[in-house]
Amino acid sequence: MTIVFDFILHYKIFKMLLQMKVYMISALYFFGILFILLFPPRNFEQSGAKMRNVRSTGSSLKYIEYFDEKNIIEVTNRMGLEDPEMVHVVHLSPRTVHNNTIVALELRSDTHSRKPGILVIGTLNGMAWGAPNSIIELAEKLLYDANYQTPFFNDYDWYLIPLVNPDALNFTKSLQSFSTINHMVWARNMTARNNTKPSEWYKNVDSDTREKCFGTNINRNFAYHWQDDVHKTPENCSQYYPGPKPFSAPESQALQRYIHKLGDAINFAIHVEGSFVPKKEYILYPWQYTLRQPSNGRTLQAIGEYAARQARLPDGRLYEVHQNSNDGRVAGSLTDYISGVLGTELVFLVKPYHPKYPNISDTSILETYVKKTITALLSLVRGWRSSTKQNTLSFFGKDVEF
User: Fold this and answer.
1) Residue 94 CB neighbour total at 10 angstroms
2) What are the pLDDT digits (tens) for 228-261?
3) Phi, psi dihedrals of residue 122, rounded to the nearest 5°
4) How many whole angstroms separate alpha carbon 134 and alpha carbon 365?
5) What is the pLDDT of residues 191-237, one digit of tens each?
6) Is 32 exposed, middle or buried (CB count within 10 Å of its CB: 0-12, 13-18, 19+)?
7) Residues β-bridged to residue 121
8) What is the reported pTM?
9) Residue 150: CB partners within 8 Å, gap ≥ 6?
C-alpha cells in the first residue's frame, strides 16, 4: 500500500513540475517576443530593412550585357542616388593610362555602427569579362533582394571594386572578332598583329604606342616579395611581366591607396577572376609567393572546403581548394599583399571557369559565370560565419542562422 501511495505522490509531483516547466517556457517565449518588439535587433531603425523598399530580384540576371567602365559608372551612380544613406560611390585615383576610372562601391546597411568589412575585387585580368557583372549583380541583390538581407547585407559592410583593369577589358573586347595567334608571336611581331588577337592577355595597357611590347601584369605588380619567384625578370613581351618596379602600374597604385585607406575595416577579402581551363575551378588562399603555409592555413582550408560544398558546381563537381602556390609560385600578387601588408587574415581568390573571348551574344555563358561566382562568394562568407558561429544557434547538432 505504501508503495502505491509513494508512486501516486511522485507522479503528482512530476506532473506539477512538468506543468511548471511548460508555463516557464511559455513565459520565456512571451517575454522574448515582447523584448524583440520593444527593442528591435540590429538597429532596425537604421538598417536596410527599414530604409529601402525590400523586394526579390529573382534568380535571373538584371544585366545581360558585359559591363565596361561606362556601364559601371552609370549603375553605381544610380545606386548612390537611389539609396544615398546606404551606398557610397568612390572614384579611385590615379586614373588608368587611357583615362578610365576605377570605381569602388561601398554598401552599409547601418549608418550608425561599423560592422565587419568584406572587400571584393574583380578583373585585374582583362580577359575575365564577366567578373564586373558578378560584382554588380551581387550589389543589386544585397541592396534590393530580401533573400540576401539577412545574413549578408545586415551583418556586414561591403566594399566592392567591380573592374580594376578597364583598359585591358576594352582592349580584349575590341579584338574579339579577329583570329587567334600565339600571344608571344602577337607581342613580338608587329605585322602579325593585323586582324589577329593574342591567345591570352593578362596585362594592362600601359602604353599609348604599340610599336613595341606593352602592358604590365597587375597581379604581379604589388610590393610584397615582388620578384621573389624568379631569378630573372620576365621580358616585357611576356604575359607575366611584373613591371619595372612595384606599383609601376596606375591600377595597382589606385588599389594600394584605397585598401590602405580602409585599413582594419577589412576583415575578409575576395579577389574574383576566371579560370580559363575547362573543369578547373578554384578557391585559393595565400601564400602565392612561397610554398610555406600561412599561420592560419587550416582555417582558410576549412572555410574554402565549406564553401566548395555549399557552391557545388552544376555538374556535381567541387571547387578545388588549396594554397595558391600549389599551382606555381607567383610573387607580387594582390592576395599576398592584402594578407601580408594590410594584415587581413582571411583572403581568398575565386576562379570559376570563364572562356577566353566568349561569344558576347550568348547570354548563357555570362549567366553561368555570374551565378557560379556569386554562389562561391556568399558560400565563403557562410563558411566564415560557420567558423565563428556568428549569429548561429545549434539545435540537435544542426546550425541555424538568425
Assistant:
1) 13
2) 877 777 888 999 999 999 999 999 999 999 999 9
3) -125, 155
4) 12
5) 899 999 999 999 999 874 555 789 999 999 999 999 887 777 788 89
6) exposed
7) 161, 271
8) 0.84
9) 401
Best CA proximity match to 169, nearest among 120, 223, 116, 133? 133
Check residue 247 and report its DSSP letter.
T
Angle, helices 69-82 vs 131-144, to 10°: value is 10
**Residue 142 dihedral angles phi and psi, to the nearest 5°:** -65, -40
Which of 296, 354, 353, 352 is closest to 323 using CA atoms?
A: 296
Peptide bond into 314 cis (omega under 30): no
Q: What is the DSSP string of 200-245?
A: ---S----S--SS-----GGG-SSSSTTTT-SSPPPTTSTT---SS
Instruction: Find, among 58, 60, 143, 152, the residue nearest to 105 by Cα.
Output: 143
The mean pLDDT value for 289-296 works out to: 94
d(CA 130, CA 67): 8
DSSP string spanning 12-61? HHHHHHHHHHHHHHHHHHHHHHHHHHHS-GGGGGGSHHHHS--B---SS-
Show the cell assigned to 180: 587567334
Q: Is there a contact between 339 and 347 (Cβ–Cβ < 8 Å)?
A: yes
Q: Are 129 and 236 in contact (CB under 8 A)?
A: no
Which residues, at least 6 apart from 348, have a Cβ–Cβ distance to it below 8 Å? 269, 270, 271, 283, 284, 285, 300, 303, 304, 335, 380
DSSP-derived pairing of the beta strands 117-122 and 282-285: unpaired
Residue by residue, DSSP assigns 99-145 as -PPPEEEEEES-SSS---EEEEEE-SSTT-TTHHHHHHHHHHHHHHB
Separation between Cα atoms, residue 183 and residue 175, nearest integer Å: 13
What does DSSP say about strands 398-401 and 392-395: parallel, antiparallel, or unpaired? Answer: antiparallel
